[in-house]
Amino acid sequence: MIITRSSKLNAMSSTTQSNAGPSTVKTEAPQSPNIPTKTKKTSVKIEVPSRTKVTTKKTSEASGSTRKKVIKREPANKKIKTEAGASVVQRKKSVAVKKEKTLKVPKEKKARVTKKKTAYTLPPEAEIYLDQSMRGRVVRSMKQRMFVISREADAGDNSIEKFQVLGSVGNNYTVTMGPSVKCTCMDFCIRRVHCKHILMVLLKVYRLPIDNLMFRTLSPNRELRLQSRSYGRTVDPSVLIPENVRQKILSIGFQNHPDAKPTEPENTTTRRSLDTSDCPICFEEFEQDAIATIDFCKTCGNNVHNECFKMWASTKGSYVTCVYCRQKWVVDKPAASGSRKNSVRQLDSSHVNERYYANFAEELGISRKRDYSMYQRQY
C-alpha cells in the first residue's frame, strides 16, 4: 500500500481538528481592484553638499499613480535619480579659481621728525627759596610761550623799566620793574604776588637764578634793580618775535611808537574847493581868508569849520565820524612826542579779549584758549 504525501497531510489535519473540538476558520477575502490601498512613503537621504535640496516621491502600488514634489529655486540645478526612485536636486558645484597672490612691496616709511618739548626742571634750591605755588608759576613761566615786544627805560630814572609782554593767549600786559614790581594781569591784581609774566622777565630777560632776592620781594631798591639788569647780557631768544610782526603789533596797539610801522590813512582824498558847499553844521559860506580855521574829511573831502566840528565830535563819544559820509574821522597825527598805549575802545573786536585786554593772538598765530593742564600739577 502506497501512502502519498497529500493523504498524510489530510490525516494530520483531521486528527488536530478532532482533538481541538469545533472551531472557526478565518478566510481572507480577495482584494478587489476598486478599493484604494494605502501608499507607502519611502524617503532616501543622500549626503550631498549643504546647498542641495532633497525631494520625496510618493508611489501607489495598486493604481500605479505617482505624485512628485520637487522644490527648485535656481534654474541652474540638476535632478539626480537614485536607485530607490527618489529625486535629488543638486546645485552645480562652483569651481573656485585661485588667484595668484601678488606680492606687495612695502612702502618705505618716512622718518617722523618729532619736536622735543622743552623740558624744564626746577633746580634743587627751588624747594628752599620758593613755596609750592611759587614753584608752579616758575614752571609755567618757563614752559608757556610768552613774548616781549617792547622794553623802555624811564627817562627820569634809568633803573625803572617797562616791558610790554604778550601772554600765553596773546593778551598784552605791562610789567613794571621799579620801586614796586607790578603787572597789569588779573593774577597780580588779585593776589599781589609774582605772576608768571614778572617771573618770565626775571628768568628769560634778566636771566636771574632762583636764589636771587628779586624772587622774594616786590619792592626792590635801586641797587638791586641795577644789579639784576646787569646780571645776564643775552636775552632768551624764545621771547623775541620777528621784526615785521612786532612792527605790525606796535602800530595797532600803540600811538606814536618809534618802532611802529608807519601806516597811511586809507581812502585819503584832497580837499574840495570852498565854493562847492557850505558848512554842514552852521550853514554859513566858507571864506578863503579863513581857510586856517576850516578842516576837511580825509575820506570824502568835504569842508567843515573847526569850531563846528568840535561841537559835533563832543556828541559822538570815542567814535567820531564825518558829518557827510559817516566814516571814521581821521585826525592828522602830530609829531611823535611819546608813545602811548591805545585803549580797548580804540581797537576792533578782533583785537580785544576778556573785555579788558588788547589781544594779538592772530598776529602771533597762537590760540586764545587757555591751557589749564599745568595748573593742576604740584611742583
Automatic annotation (TrEMBL):
Residue ranges constituting the RING-type domain according to the UniProt record: 279-326
Alphabetical keyword list: Metal-binding, Zinc, Zinc-finger
Pfam families for the chain: zf-RING_2 (PF13639)
Coiled coil: none
Biased composition (Polar residues): 1-37
Chain intervals for the UniProt region annotation (Disordered): 1-70, 255-274
Family annotation (Gene3D superfamilies): Zinc/RING finger domain, C3HC4 (zinc finger)
Domain SWIM-type: 173-206
Protein name from the UniProt record: SWIM-type domain-containing protein
Species, as recorded: Helicostylum pulchrum
Organism phylogeny: Eukaryota, Fungi, Fungi incertae sedis, Mucoromycota, Mucoromycotina
